[in-house]
Amino acid sequence: MELIHFTSFSGRFLGLKYRASINRRSTKVDMGNCWGSKSAELVHWTSNGDSNDVGFSSSSPSQSQFSVAASDDTCLNGEILATPNLKVYTFADLKTATRNFKSDTVLGIGGFGTVFKGWVDEKTLAPSKFGAGMIVAIKKLSHESVQGFREWQSEVNFLGRLSHPNLVKLLGYCWEDQELLLVYEFMQKGSLENHLFRRVSSSVEPLSWDLRLKIVIGAARGLSFLHTSEKQIIYRDFKASNILLDGNFNAKISDFGLAKLGPSGGNSHVTTRIMGTYGYAAPEYIATGHLYVKSDVYGFGVVLLEILTGLRALDTKRPSGQHNLVDWAKPLLSNKKKLQTIMDARMEGQYSSKAALQTAQLTLKCLEPEPRNRPSMKEVTEVLERIEAMRIKPKASK
After folding, report:
1. For 31-71, what is each residue's pLDDT tens digit?
2. Residue 237 catalytic?
3. Segment holding 253, helix H or strand E
4. Ramachandran region of residue 97, left (φ > 0), alpha (ψ -120 to 50) or beta?
5. Quick one: CA torsion of 258, 261, 262, 263, rounded to 10 degrees?
6. What confidence category does residue 143 fall into, taking pLDDT thresholds of 50, 70 and 90?
7. How far apart are alpha carbons 157 and 237 in whole angstroms?
């Protein structure tokens, strides 16, 4: 049995017993240098032609590559931990927590795999009998997922270290043979996508203007925290389905499988393989593979447009010429009268025309073709907070 030593941003942080052979997993990941010693085999996972990926390095620098900028107000509620504080689960633990991954515990299915509802002890996080303790969300990798290991690795590396009220909390993980799982805090209200685009039901009601602003402000604070750490983090996959909501509709960014360290050494961007979600990805990234911190701002602008209109970024069921929301709606955002024709009718009477127009203008700035012309997420957050303060003045009674 081999002992695999992982190293993180500031040095080694995980030691996992790995029973499966290296060749068995080689189809799932791109592997770099692998070398061994007599006492234990140390595996150095690297990327394949994807510069600046977060990897498990064999070096152990004395100081973390990350530190929070103390002067930045957006970071005061968050921190980057020196070492991750994650619970290691066995596969048997998580079978217990989910009643053997029964179908009635499924919360959702995505590209990574299936997410199950499970139960753990509130204090120790140890698996508990179903219905006893605290609900958690358990993401189980599909064995057919090509990018699965890389995304699992990135989640552990980033969310294991990042702590902020607007980032989903990773509680623990499991790596046993070919089983890869992640355990998260449970978000009662599901995703922003569900509330914006799914049919209204007893469990999902249309979001009010005030709730939509609250959600995008929370998400903006989360992105701002990532961007303003000393070593910037580019999220790379900002979209409505990755914004999760707790019981009070507080927004938390989830799924860090595509996150990357930002540019370093005076560079303005990172060159990487093009990955993400079409409709949200910034044009410069699609065209060149150059990923900027402000590529995230473009994705945020797309979500703002979805918030305003209640329409998906891409929908081939819409009339011809309207399939791509940005292409169709962007020219209408600067005109007050035209803007009213695309605003989500479910919010009618809940906002002032001034607040709607300012939100539309901010959306336009986020969707600027040139990254340098887009605002920072700190600036975006400040503008949204000012818009939130605009309340509809009650009409004077006759």
Report:
1. 222 222 222 222 222 233 343 333 332 222 223 333 333 33
2. yes
3. strand 251-253
4. alpha
5. -120
6. confident
7. 17
- Cβ atoms within 10 A of the Cβ of 291, count? 28
- Looking up tokens 């009998």 gives 129
For helices 295-309 and 377-388, the axis angle rounded to 10 degrees is 20
Give the pairing type, strands 243-245 and 251-253. antiparallel
Maximum CA extent, the chain:
89
Q: Is the pLDDT of residue 74 over 50?
A: no
Reported as type and span, the H/E element at residue 341 is helix 336-342
Give all domains of the chain, ordered by start, each with its CATH number: 2-185 (3.30.200.20), 190-388 (1.10.510.10)
Is 169 labelled a binding residue? no
- Share the mean pLDDT of the chain: 79
Query: DSSP letter string over 142-197?
Result: -TT-SSHHHHHHHHHHHHTTEE-TTBPPEEEEEEETTEEEEEEE--TTEEHHHHHH
Catalytic option among 53, 93, 237, 255: 237
Half-sphere exposure of 69 (CA within 13 A, CB side): 14
Q: Give the pair of three-digit tokens for residue 70.
A: 């103390």
What pTM value is reported for the model? Answer: 0.80
Nearest to 135 by CA among 71, 187, 63: 187
